[in-house]
């Protein structure tokens, strides 16, 4: 990975200084070749990488993070509508590596513009309708924990507690699910999971793509079930109790459990109130 994530993020602006404005203009019209286009791509790649918490930099040394960021920058400057926004692509890694205690793996970002926020399954608080997979997650959350179903698509409270909401593939073309599968992201996210597995943690793996990571973590630390999508949720996702089981795994390793409670329900009562 060359000089590492930290060098790439910190030096991107300087590397793009000569001709950055002209390069950005060229990129906007699809020209990402030549020195100016390369400068614009380097600058945008720096924006993408800047979200990564410094604690991850050493852990990702030797992983093709810079290459993935630069390839994504070229896609964007070439006119492709890539989701999520550049500053959110690595949002899952914006929490300190040592603070991460639960991993929830998704497949790739929501392909609907305005939905993807860089955290798997999460969307903006005002997203309506709430994505169907998340509706099913809310249903299982309520049944598992005895809490009211949330009225929001925002899972940031989990993220802030050290729950990494990581997609297996970090970007997608708007309107085209799975369009960036096999473009290099899998090597990056696998490296993230390998590092997390070195510490006490629990993993919630929904669907087969996520479950390919189970051998890296150990089955005794994984909660696995079908994906919460409408096509698969009735095949074993409902009733799987992922949240309480993840907390049991944490307690078994001497780690504090997660307070999964989200916002109050639509009636304004406490999320702790029994349904």
From TrEMBL:
GO cellular component assignments: cytoplasm
Sorted UniProt keywords: Cytoplasm, DNA damage, DNA repair, Hydrolase
Gene Ontology biological process terms from the UniProt entry: base-excision repair, AP site formation via deaminated base removal
Location within or outside the cell: Cytoplasm
CDD domains: UDG-F1-like
Domain Uracil-DNA glycosylase-like, chain residue ranges per copy: 93-250
InterPro entries in UniProt: UDG_fam1, Ura-DNA_Glyclase_AS, Uracil-DNA_glycosylase-like, Uracil-DNA_glycosylase-like_sf
Catalytic activity: Hydrolyzes single-stranded DNA or mismatched double-stranded DNA and polynucleotides, releasing free uracil
Origin: domain of life: Bacteria
Primary location class: cytoplasm
PROSITE patterns attached to this UniProt entry: U_DNA_GLYCOSYLASE (PS00130)
EC number per UniProt: 3.2.2.27
Keyword Cytoplasm among record annotations: yes
Gene3D superfamilies: Uracil-DNA glycosylase-like domain
Function: Excises uracil residues from the DNA which can arise as a result of misincorporation of dUMP residues by DNA polymerase or due to deamination of cytosine.
HAMAP family, A to Z: UDG (MF_00148)
Family label: Belongs to the uracil-DNA glycosylase (UDG) superfamily. UNG family.
Protein name: Uracil-DNA glycosylase
Lineage: Bacteria, Bacillati, Actinomycetota, Actinomycetes, Mycobacteriales
Gene: ung
């Amino acid at each position: 990975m060359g000089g590492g994530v930290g060098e790439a993020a910190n030096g991107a602006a300087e590397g793009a200084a000569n001709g950055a404005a002209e390069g950005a203009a060229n990129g906007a019209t699809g020209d990402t070749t030549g020195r100016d286009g390369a400068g614009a791509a380097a600058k945008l790649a720096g924006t993408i990488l800047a979200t990564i918490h410094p604690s991850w930099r050493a852990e990702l040394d030797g992983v093709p993070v810079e290459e993935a960021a630069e390839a994504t920058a070229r896609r964007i400057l070439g006119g492709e509508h890539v989701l999520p926004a550049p500053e959110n692509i690595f949002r899952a890694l914006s929490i300190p590596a040592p603070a991460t205690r639960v991993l929830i793996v998704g497949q790739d970002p929501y392909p609907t513009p305005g939905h993807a926020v860089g955290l798997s399954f999460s969307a903006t608080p005002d997203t309506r309708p709430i994505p169907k997979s998340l509706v099913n997650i809310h249903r299982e959350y309520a049944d598992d924990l005895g809490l009211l179903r949330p009225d929001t698509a925002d899972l940031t409270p989990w993220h802030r507690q050290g729950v990494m909401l990581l997609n297996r593939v970090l970007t997608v073309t708007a309107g085209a699910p799975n369009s960036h599968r096999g473009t290099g992201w899998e090597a990056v996210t696998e490296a993230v999971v390998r590092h997390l597995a070195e510490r006490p943690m629990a993993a919630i793996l929904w669907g087969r793509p996520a479950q390919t990571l189970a051998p890296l973590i150990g089955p005794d630390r994984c909660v696995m079930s079908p994906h919460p999508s409408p096509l698969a949720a009735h095949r074993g996702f409902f009733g799987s109790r992922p949240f309480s089981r993840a907390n049991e795994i944490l307690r078994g390793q001497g780690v504090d459990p997660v307070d999964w409670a989200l916002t109050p329900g639509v009636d304004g009562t406490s999320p702790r109130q029994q349904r």
